[in-house]
Amino acid sequence: xxxxxxxxxxxxxxxxxxxxxxxxxxxxxxxxxxxxxxxxxxxxxxxxxxxxxxxxxxxxxxxxxxxxxxxxxxxxxxxxxxxxxxxxxxxxxxxxxxxxxxxxxxxxxxxxxxxxxxxxxxxxxxxxxxxxxxxxxxxxxxxxxxxxxxxxxxxxxxxxxxxxxxxxxxxxxxxxxxxxxxxxxxxxxxxxxxxxxxxxxxxxxxxxxxxxxxxxxx
Length: 218
Fold this sequence. Notes:
single chain, alpha+beta, Jelly Rolls, Arc Repressor Mutant, subunit A, 4-stranded antiparallel beta sheet, globular
């Protein structure tokens, strides 16, 4: 069963899925690499991935976590540039791969070019808004909002974020030690549990309430 598409119409998604070549990916596998030619796009059918940006000084930023129904690598294909970020599988993933030429041809034939360009612009604005928001917040609210933004939606109040302290810190510009302290406070509130390289939201409504209050961990 095809997942619900994120940010594109069901018609466009099904058109692309029908033309894509199925592929399986292991957890930890690099699906797209920053700087490589944008030779194809991927449609994420199952599993989660993370998008990472490596800055010139070597610092790594976590840009986003994406789940089923996401189109990956289309920005570089539409813009005619190299890959702007590295995409790594968090879980074992199933994808459909579509060459850049065939992808662009399908968009022209279906009249979906404008739809995909609007989607790309929305994603860029979302990223800018997130960076501006987190830069102005203290550590507690920053970590809370990062957990909510990085969690792939699922049923129920428990959500496996799939990321550890270092990666959450990469998303919000905080050290691993600072993130560990904020997660410890959230654990004490019964809002999250943590294991090595993994954070699980155990009380999603309360985490949302903390984010709304702006206080983060009280």
